[in-house]
Amino acid sequence: MTVLDAPGAQLYFEVHGQGPLMVMIPGAGGTADSFRMVAEHLAADYTIVLYDRRGFSRSRLDGPQDYSHRLNTDADDVRRLIEHVGGGPATVFGASSGAIVALALQTRHPEVVHALVPFEPPAVLQLPDGDRWVEFFHQVYDLYQHAGIGPAMQWFRAQTFPHSDQQVMGAVPRNEANAIYWFEHELRQYPAVQLDLNSLSLHAERILLAVGREGRGYPAHDVSVVLARKFGRNTVELPGGHVGAVSHPAAFAQELTTALAEEGLTATDRPNTHAPHRRLL
Questions:
Q1: For the purposes of burial, counting CB atoms within 10 Å of the CB of 132, is it exposed (0-12), middle (13-18) or buried (19 or more)?
Q2: What is the pTM of this model?
Q3: Domain holding 43: CATH number?
Q4: Nearest residue to 242 (alpha-carbon basis) of 212, 210, 208, 209
Q5: Quick count: other Cβ atoms within 10 Å of Cβ 234?
Q6: Cα gap 92→79, rounded to integer Å
Q7: Domain containing 205: what range?
Q8: Contact 49, 14 (CB under 8 A)
Q9: What's the burial of 275, exposed, middle or buried (CB within 10 Å: 0-12/13-18/19+)?
Q10: Which of 124, 161, 199, 209 is disulfide-compatible with 165, CB 3.0–4.6 A?
């Protein structure tokens, strides 16, 4: 098991493939496993770094945590991984709340980012009815406290994702500890983030706003559309919905790679001389 020591945590990570560096930031599940299938296809063109975000599964907490600045800590962890593995700056792909982490990374550490792909970040305050969505997430949390994970998760998914996503999510075995950690420290907090749009717009040319084709009309999809408009960028549609990397891994990887190339965001291959371990998928 490959682990990076970070302040307050032991970060589990994996390195696969060869080529320019791409770091993939998971969303609510918090683990490298959510990208395992799509990484099999991306590893032909990129050195892929998968990891568990701190507090999830194999990335154990080690000491006190500052939960009032958890998003910043998440972003700093990605910067540490890029610097530790070497070969950066990196293409950074983040899905769902991982996309919010990716945007925070771009704001805090733009020097480690070659290209940024925030895939459907649920930063709902960008929406005209954003306050209503923030209140909804608080209501989901209240349901979790009174009725448990199952009913709360079912209601959350039914309101925020298309039916195709709900089927995929429902088929994934639930990790109780990860679900609790997400409910307590992320469900209400990350969607309510105030993005630093001025800072992000300074690097808009390196940001590729990506959405799932099946997600139109749902909040995370629509946030990407709003951000693209604010940054003067186009959105790129990828196969599936919010979890298209799971439901359509081969097509998702191919179209993501093509979109990066078409936008001029494909990095030249840099020798990765500092990678502690490389495993081909």
A1: exposed
A2: 0.93
A3: 3.40.50.1820
A4: 212
A5: 13
A6: 10
A7: 3-125+193-262
A8: yes
A9: middle
A10: 161
β-pairing, 113-119 vs 235-238, is unpaired
Please, which residues have CB within 8 angstroms of residue 144's CB and are 6 or more apart in sequence?
151, 152, 153, 183, 187
Is 221 inside a domain boundary? yes
| Greatest Cα-to-Cα distance within the chain, rounded to the nearest angstrom | 52
Q: Which residues have a Cβ under 8 Å from the Cβ of 265 and sit 6 or more positions away?
A: 91, 114, 115, 206, 208
Q: Is the residue at 133 inside a domain?
A: no
Q: Per-residue pLDDT tens, the chain, 281 aa: give them.
A: 699 999 999 999 999 999 999 999 999 889 999 999 999 999 999 999 999 999 999 999 998 899 999 999 999 999 999 999 998 899 999 999 999 999 999 999 999 999 999 999 999 999 999 999 999 999 999 999 999 999 999 999 999 998 988 988 888 778 999 999 999 999 999 999 999 999 999 999 999 999 999 999 999 999 999 999 999 999 999 999 999 999 999 999 999 999 999 999 987 644 443 343 333 33
* Cis previous bond, 110, omega within 30: no
Tokens of 112: 């480690």
235, part of any domain: yes
The number of domains in the chain is 1
Q: What is the distance between the terminal CA atoms of the chain, rounded to a whole angstrom?
A: 16
Cα angle, residue 268 at apex, residues 266 and 274 outer, rounded to 5°: 120
Asked whether residue 151 is assigned to any structural domain, the reply reads: no
